[in-house]
Write a structure and sequence with these properties.
By secondary structure, the chain is mainly α. Helix content is 68%, strand content 0%. The protein has helices at 2-27, 41-48.
């Protein structure tokens, strides 16, 4: 049971980190790559809610 709880907590923190990195990376300008792919609609909605 302890291992299962540890895995759940770890995945929760990893998902939070992934969301934070996604929001930060889409709100900043890309300086190193000339082609920036189109931002997904869901990520635009998250940025507009700020």
């Amino acid at each position: 049971m302890k291992l299962n709880n540890f895995v759940k907590k770890s995945l929760h923190h990893f998902a939070s980190l992934a969301l934070a990195v996604g929001v930060i990376s889409t709100s900043t300008m890309c300086r190193f790559v000339l082609h920036q792919p189109e931002v997904p609609k869901k990520m635009k909605e998250l940025l507009d809610d700020k």
